[in-house]
Request: fold
Amino acid sequence: MPVDPLKLKTIEDDDDVSVADSEESIEDKKQEINTDFTFSVDGGADWDTKKYQWDFTNIKQSAKQGQKATLDEVINSKKVDLSGLDEDEEEEEDEEEVREGLSILEKDDPEDIVKEKRKAEFFDDTVIETTAEQSESFTSFSLSRPILKAIAAMGFVKPTDIQAKSIPLALQGRDICGSAVTGSGKTAAFMIPILERLLFRPRTVPAIRVLVLVPTRELGAQCHSVATNLSKFSTIQICLCVGGLSQKLQEAELRKKPDIVIATPGRLIDHIHNSPSFSLDEIEILVIDEADRILEDGFKAELNEIIKNTPVKRQTMLFSATMTDNVDELIKLSLKNPVRLFVDNNQSMTSKLVQEFIRVRQHKEESRPAILAALCSRTYQSETLIFFRSKAAAHHMKIVFGLLGLSAAELHGNLTQFQRLEALENFRDKKVNFLLATDLASRGLDISGIKTVINYDMPANYSVYVHRCGRTARGDAGGRAVSLVGEQDRLILKLALKNSRDAVKHRVVPSKVIAKFETVLEGLKDTIKEIYVEEKQEKLISNAEMQVQKAQNMILHEKEIKSRPAKVWFQTAEETKAAKAKPVDPNAPARSKTDGMSRKKKRLYFARQEEKKEQAQQQIAAKSAKSASKQKKLTQFSTKDSGKQQSKKRNLFDAEISRKKRK
Ligand SMILES: Nc1ncnc2c1ncn2[C@@H]1O[C@H](COP(=O)(O)OP(=O)(O)OP(=O)(O)O)[C@@H](O)[C@H]1O
Reply:
C-alpha cells in the first residue's frame, strides 16, 4: 500500500537508531539514546503495581488561582451530626437479569445496508493480524531505546490490545480510526509511535510537527503528562495549549517550535489568530483524541477552522472508546485510506464493570438528593466519582455533602483552572472521598483507584454514559457504576442492558432510609440558603476587588495596554451565535428531529419514540394472540389474566427494572 512520503521518517525493520540522524551532536545522541538500557519484561510492573501517575505540578503554576476558597470553612462551621441515622435498615441488593424484551432495539433500518456499503468503500478493512510477539512485548515493534526505557519506567510490560494493533500501523504513517474500551491505554497507543517517529526528525530546523487535539483542559494536561513521561529520555519538546493556563507562557513556548502541541480547540484557534509566528503549516501528524466528541456539533466550526489550517498531506489518527465510523463525519478530515481498528465492540463496557440501577419513580424525583446522601453515607463512602448534569447541581451537592460531613471536591466549568486541577489532585490523592463533577470529567480522565461512579442523573446520551462509567474499572481493575434512573431515562437503561457483558443489578435503597435523609436535608434548607447568601457576598467583594485592580492597572500601564493589538477570533460574535443556532456546513446532513431540543426534551422525545415502538410491537403481539385464539376457539382467557396483561403493558418500565431473580 503506498504511503504518503511524510517528512517524518517511517521506521523500517532494518532502520538503526544510532545512525538515524547524522545532524545531531554526539552529546544530543547520548542524551537521547542510552545504550546501556535493555528492555526487560520483568523490569516493569503490571496494571496493579504500576508506578506512573500524572503530575500537574508544573501546569498548575501557569494557572490562575482565583479567589481563595472560603466556602469549605463556612460549610464546616455549620456541619450536622449524622450518627445514629443508619442503625437498623439494611440496604437491599437484588441481583437480576433484566435483559429480556430488548429485541426492539435491534436494527432493521434498510439505510444501514447503504451505510455499511459506504463504510466498506471508505475504510481499508484488510484484516491486519497482530503477531503473538507484538501482543507479548513492546520490544517486537523495533522501538528505539529511549522509548522502550520510558515505557518500562512507566511500568508498562505488555502492550494492550489497542496498542498491539495500532503501534505498527501508526509507525508506517497510516491513518487510523481506533476504538477500544475506556481505560485500555489509547493515549500510549498513539503517543508511543509518534515519539518513535519524532526521534528521527531532522533537527536543524525546529518545527511543530504533531498536533494532538483533546476536548477538555484536564484531558490535555493528562495527555501532556503521559507524553512528557514517554519522552523523558529524549530531547522531544511538548507544549500544552489549553484554556485556563497562561496564554503568554504558551506563546513563549510556541515561539520555540516544540515538536508536539497538545491543545483544546478554542485555545489553539486563539493562538492561530493572535500569536505572531504561530502556525500549523508544518503539522505532519494530527491526532484527535475523544474524536467523536470533537466531531460533535459543539466543536464543528472550531474543527473546520483547525483542519483548514493544517496541511492536507499529513497522517491523521482518531481515537475514542465510542469512536464514530460515520463516513459523513469523517470525510471532512480528509483521511487517506484509513484503517478501522475497533478492538472491542464499539460502545461496549469493560467486563470488569458492575452496573447497578436504582429506580427513581416519577413522583419521587425530589428524593434524588436523599438517595445520593444515603448511598454515600452508608455504602460508597470513598473513592467515589459522582456525575451531575449541571454545574449548579454539583455545587449544591458540594454544600450538602459538606454539611453532612462527607469530604468532597467539585469539578465543573464555574471554577478557575487552578481549582479544577487541584480538585482532581485532591481526589486522586484521597484527600477527599468524593468528586462531584459535571461531564467535564466524563471523558478520558485517568484517576487510578476510583471504586465507584454514581450517575446522580443520567446523561443525555448513551455514549456519555459509557465514558462516565469508564472512569472506574480501568485496565485490570474492577469497579462499579451506580445510576439513578428516572422514567425519562429508559432508552439509556435499555442500551446499557443490551451492551453490558455481565449481569446488572437492581439496588433498592429502603424507603425508610430515604425518608430519614429527606428529613435531615429538609432541616438543612435554611443553612444552605445562608451559605448561598455568604457565597454571593464573597463573590461581589472579589469582583469589586478585581475591578479596582483592573482600574489601577489601567492607570499605571494605560499606554501599553491600549497599544496591544485587539484579539481576533475566527468568527464574529454574530457568526458564533448563528453557528450555535444552525449547522454551519451547507452540505451537512439534514437536521435531525432532536436538533435544537433541550436535553430534557430530547430524553422525553426518545423515551416517547421507544414507547411508540413498544406499543406497536405489543399491538402486533396482541393481534397474533387474537388470531391464535380464534383457531383454538375453546381457549378462554380469564379476566384475571387479561388484567395482568394490561398492567404489564402499562408498567413495562417496572417489568424491565424490577423483575427479580434472587440468587
Ligand atoms: N501497556 C500498558 N500496561 C499497563 N498499563 C498501561 C498500559 N498502557 C496504558 N496503561 C495505563 O492504563 C491507564 C489507562 O490509559 P488511558 O488513559 O490511555 O486509557 P484510554 O483507553 O485512553 O481511556 P479512556 O477511553 O477513558 O480515555 C493509564 O493509567 C495508563 O498509564
